[in-house]
Design brief:
Layout (H helix, E strand, L loop, with lengths): L1 E5 L2 E6 L8 E6 L4 E8 L6 E8 L3 E7 L7 E2 L17 E7 L6 E6 L2 E5 L7 E2 L1 H4 L15 E7 L7 E6 L2 E5 L7 E2 L22 E6 L7 E5 L3 E4 L7 E2 L8 E7 L7 E6 L14 E4 L7 E3 L16 E3 L7 E4 L5 E4 L7 E4 L5 E6 L3
Antiparallel strand pairs: 1-2, 1-28, 2-3, 4-5, 5-6, 6-7, 8-9, 9-10, 10-11, 12-13, 13-14, 14-15, 16-17, 17-18, 18-19, 20-21, 21-22, 22-23, 24-25, 25-26, 26-27
InterPro entries: WD40/YVTN_repeat-like_dom_sf (IPR015943), Xyloglucanase_GH74 (IPR052025)
Protein name: Photosystem II stability/assembly factor-like uncharacterized protein
GO biological process, one term: xyloglucan metabolic process
């Protein structure tokens, strides 16, 4: 199954294990922005979650327990700020499962993290992060100020790593009672010379990690691709060999902790693929070397792939997918070696999620 979130609704794709032919339904939530999706395969039946936002009704986390045939929502919104914060959720940018049964995390704009213990039906604010002394100085990236990445530790429910634009990487090791910045070694190229390695304020675009090696993190920055081998304590550049170090998504192979994918963009104002060619780049040695993957992808391609619009499924031979701002979704059933277009002419794609059910 594929979930495709766009600026004007959600589309669902299904295929057999070959992933050669796909059938799509949509739009679900027509004319609503869908920035986050989750296929939660825990429990007796899978649950689909979608973070949708209506310009008239505001944001809502919708859920389906029948693979999208019907949808439910929580009255007055599942994700809400407490009254004393005087804040309102504008968008839900991230939905991810925690390591504990029933736990789901949501990242929002304005920048906050919420935690659910009932598989996304209700959420509570991570208050210590909202009250963090750095928060008044967090900037807002071009897309807004939001926690767009949440990485619960797969084995330790006390530990969560998260990132926002433009604030950088933060981590808790005590179930959210306290949070610390974890940006040592990440360059903020947009700051003046001599000030480019601050404690916080980096424009991190996305982070990922493999559950079998949770201490290793991969990061795509606003100028820079990095790896950490100590769970964000320090970061090392792994951009050598790439045609550009700017981009939005970064995806780890579901079975190989050393295999990672990026979609580089020209960092100039155009922010289109380098040389106008759609190319995914893959490293099989944790970023020491990179290879270009373009079989089946177009050579005239001037649209971007956003931070959550690239993912992998968890088949034995994984599929890799990316959606574009011109409404197309491309897929590979052989780990990125060859590609084909799965669907086209959708609205602007913001999120793609895949899972074997």
């Amino acid at each position: 199954m594929l979930m495709i979130g766009t600026r004007k609704g959600l589309w669902l794709g299904t295929s057999d294990e070959s992933r050669a032919e796909w059938a799509f339904t949509g739009p679900h939530f027509d004319m609503e922005e869908v920035y986050s999706c989750l296929i939660d395969t825990r429990g007796a039946a899978p649950r689909l979650l979608a973070g949708a936002s209506s310009m008239w009704l505001g944001p809502q986390v919708r859920r389906s327990d029948d693979l999208g045939a019907t949808w439910q929502e929580t009255a007055n919104g599942a994700v809400r700020f407490p009254d004393d914060t005087e804040a309102n959720v504008e968008r839900v940018w991230q939905l991810v499962p925690g390591p504990e049964e029933g736990v789901v995390y949501a990242g929002t704009e304005p920048a906050a993290i919420f935690r659910s213990t009932d598989r996304g039906e209700t959420f509570a604010l991570e208050r210590a992060l909202w009250d963090h002394p750095h928060r008044p100085d967090w900037g807002a990236g071009f897309g807004g100020q939001a926690f767009h990445t949440i990485l619960p530790h797969p084995d330790d429910p006390r530990s969560v790593t998260a990132a926002l634009s433009s604030g950088g990487v933060y981590q808790t090791g005590d179930r959210g009672a306290s949070w610390e910045a974890r940006n040592h070694g990440i360059r903020a190229e947009f700051l003046p010379e001599g000030e480019q390695y601050p404690e916080f304020g980096q424009c991190v675009h996305k982070i990922t990690r493999h559950p079998a090696r949770p201490e290793r993190l991969y990061l795509q920055n606003h100028g820079g691709v990095y790896r950490s081998d100590d769970e964000g304590g320090t970061w090392k550049s792994i951009a050598d060999g790439l045609p550009a170090d700017f981009g939005f998504p970064i995806v780890v192979h579901p079975h190989e902790p050393d295999t990672v994918y990026v979609f580089p963009l020209d960092g100039s104002a155009g922010r289109h693929p380098v040389d106008g060619k759609a190319r995914v780049w893959r490293s099989r040695d944790a970023g020491e070397t990179w290879e270009e993957l373009g079989a089946g992808l177009p050579d005239s391609f001037y649209v971007a792939v956003m931070r959550d619009a690239m993912c992998a499924d968890d088949h034995r031979t994984p599929g890799v997918y990316f959606g574009t701002r011109n409404g197309a979704v491309w897929g590979s059933a052989d780990e990125g070696d060859t590609w084909r277009q799965l669907v086209s002419d959708l609205p602007d794609v913001m999120a793609v999620r895949a899972a074997a059910i």
